[in-house]
């Protein structure tokens, strides 16, 4: 079984190499990479794409899909989540973590339609999440939105200050992934440092949504990114009452460290206070305002080593 799949993957790469240079008249056809291990499903999507002028190529497993994405830079990736080698979530995460493919539009096509999987898809960087069975218009609307995202990212220059407002976790996840792309392009921070900052902002923003705004959609969380010559500054503010930093509601209570767990689980909340502890190790400095509803995260750029300049 594995040898057959490997031979098929090798043939797919050869076919992709030939297709990548295919043109219609003087205009190069848009290329779609389909990462799907069910041949019938892959061919169906390939035929639909052909009707809209896409030159589609197919990868039958995740590792082959990653290789093809890096080598040929497709205009969009249509990604199944249940693959034979690695999950589609991991494929998407690795595409977003690689500077060569981080701006590749990704549309997840899957039968996993529950909220948990959808949130996970956006968390690892998907631009759209389409559940099976889907309509043709739904598919191409998702592709158009994903490609429009890439164009907007290429036009955007993360300099000075960017201010965003959000009121849901989906908005947060999409905004954070856009921010991640721009920080990688605009600052000298390493991929690992950028991913740590993303995690820190995620923790603080989720705290703001859950604990500060109490999941009220009419209350916004404001995030401001400021790019300086020597550092990145991120300010996160909610519209809640704030908190007392001397009395954090986490499991560090000496008398009964587990007393809050049942209440937290019933409310669907994470343990408050842990996000603060996590973030302290990911940024250089973290400051709160007096009210306790605004946090500023600072990450300084690495200094050039002596003698490394021209």
Structure characteristics:
single chain, 310 residues, alpha/beta, Rossmann fold, Heat Shock Protein 90, 2 domains, 5-stranded antiparallel β-sheet, disordered N terminus
Secondary structure layout:
Elements: H1 2-20, E1 23-24, E2 27-28, E3 30-35, H2 39-51, E4 54-59, H3 62-72, E5 76-79, H4 88-97, E6 106-110, H5 115-123, E7 128-131, H6 136-155, E8 160-166, H7 169-186, H8 191-212, E9 221-227, E10 231-237, H9 261-267, H10 274-280, E11 285-288, E12 294-300
Parallel strand pairs: 3-4, 3-5, 5-6, 6-7
Antiparallel strand pairs: 1-2, 8-9, 9-10, 10-12, 11-12
Helix pairs in contact: 3-4, 7-8, 8-10
User: Class of the largest domain, according to the CATH hierarchy?
Assistant: Alpha Beta
User: What structural class do helix, strand and pairing data support?
Assistant: alpha/beta
Number of domains: 2
**CATH topology term of the largest domain:** Rossmann fold
Following the backbone from N to C, one meets helices and strands in this order, namely HEEEHEHEHEHEHEHHEEHHEE
Strand content: 15-25%
Give the C-alpha Rg: 22 Å
Cα shape? globular
User: What is the helix fraction of residues, given as a range?
Assistant: 40-55%
CATH level-two architecture of the largest domain: 3-Layer(aba) Sandwich
CATH superfamily of the largest domain: Response regulator
Distance between the termini: 54 Å
How many individual β-strands?
Answer: 12
| Poorly predicted segments | 1-21
Main-sheet strand order equals 4-3-5-6-7
